[in-house]
# Entry
Amino acid sequence: MTPNQIFAVVAALVAGHSNADFDHLRAGGYDNRYPVAVESCELPPGTLEVEGQTVLCGTVSVPEDYAKPKGRRVALEFAILKSLSRSPAPDPLLYLHGGPGGGTLQMLGPVGDLLFANHRRTRDVVTFDQRAAALSSRNVACFKGMAKHIVELAKVTLDKLPKSAMNEMIDPCVKEIEASDADLSAYNTENNAHDVRALMSALGYPDYNIYGISYGTRLTLEVLRTEPEGVRSAVIDGIAPTTVKLYNDLVGPYVDTLDALVDQCAADEHCNAAYPDLRATINAAFMKLAKEPIAAARGRPEIGMMQLVQLVFEDRNNWRDQRDITGYLPRIFTELAQGKADTFDAVQTSAPPDRIKALSETKGLTEDERALIRVVLESAKGMGDVQKGVTAALERLKRDLGDARQVTSIAEAFEARSNQALAAISDKDARAALVRDYAMLQTMTPGRKPLIAWVSAHFEGADRDALLELIAAMSDADIVRTFDIARSEATKYESVLGGVINQAIYACQEDVPYNTEAGFQARITELAKRYPFVEAFRGETGFFKTCKSFAKHPRPDFQTPVVSDIPVLALNGLRDVQTSWHWGAVAVKTLKNGRNYVIPEAGHASIAYQPCANDISVAFINDPAAKLDTSCIGRIKVKFVLPDDPLPGAK
# Structure
């Protein structure tokens, strides 16, 4: 956050006017086949963003079936994050999210401030929730089924819903969608590719670049095959080629990251000497814990095989946790194979490293140089603390100015009063029935009668009278707003089940029968020859059980390699456990101008882990034909912790 950025945000807030660049979109967009409607962002888009000036949200209407342009329509929720440059490149970067069915508009802050902040220095960043994903999923939502289970779904934030309970909800939910006007067969990657072209045409971008992550890489490749017009360049990061049977190989990426670790250690003289035959040690550690878990003691919980899986494959791949765990793994495996947990415990309880202390203790420095380093770094830390204060002040200013310009509507007053009345109801069954019926309001045409019926059925005395008075005072706009609030509140909880359904719509209809439970089991057998512990995943067949609820709509050419001469940059995280770091090479085989790089110490979506990946992608998008300086990849080194090295927190 620079002083100029802070000044720009404050000036924009005080001015209160809208960015003229968005005027054409407010008037309906640039392509009358795909009308645009501007609306408020679902969630606050970020501290440095000002709606209507630096960011614009809205919907674009596209055909559910492009072969029937006058048929049913789908509303796709989009956002434009304006470039930070006063003279931006005309071709924006379009971010295609993962999942499938994941969505991105509910995390606009990280998208604009973290993932693509450097790209915004030169061009706009556009993103959207794909059909049947997050905010764009209302066309394929099972409102009755989700309302029926709204109480159970609301508890998921506190207690994880058992898989058995989730599976019981899926089949009736799918049947409800199929009984609606929705054509589930139209929700696939090919139509997503048509949506991409429609969106960019509607937003007035004839040429653009793509950055796809996870399922977004598969969609990117489909765009290159199906709708390549206007695509200047593309980056695929955390790659899922259509030629790979992803769901047969769910465990394969785990094994590939272990192979990479074994190779890294073998290539390091000291690591290889300290931990010879690391693969055998890894297997010994997993088998030891499977038979003899380390009992809960030491002020720590039990360590079984799945706790080791959690640390190695999940904690290490959390981009929000930047602890350097990889270097400790050979020592962790070695100790656990011996029944010891010293390093495992130390890593689990460690905080991010104290970089000030580490740099000031660099060997070969004089005391004066050490003191200067501490002064400089402590000053930098102080700047970070100041920035936190500035961020808090800006958020408060945005809220205060917003409150000053927007008078609370009767709809908001109705929501607050009904919540107050709900809190006073002690009977659990009555509360559950009230919440379920409230969730069902989103399925109804906005009007006074449904609101009156809901209030009359669930409230008594002064609470009922107060709520009925508010309904009587509502304007038509207030009534519509009340139903919008009901939809928004229900969506918070429905996303738990909805996320599973949205992903399955694509995965089950497109990937099955290319992927089968028999294929998954055969792959486990193959992988277990190298790492026997993967046998523990043999029962993880929930995906195939879920898919029994869906009709299959496989495309004959779905697994055909994509052929294109558009410049493509493929980035792979060496410790990616969702898509194997080998798969980028598979994707670029038929891409004439494709380049493939593997980024050490990066998980799924390398741009989120390593500045090196970020810098390479920016350079590529700025000039897709230029030779890339990728020397930073070679400078990413793992410092392996040897048996006698001090542990985190040791004095």
Observations:
- The first strand starts at residue 36 and ends at 39.
- Strands lie at 36-39, 55-63, 73-81, 93-96, 125-128, 208-214, 231-239, 568-573, 594-599.
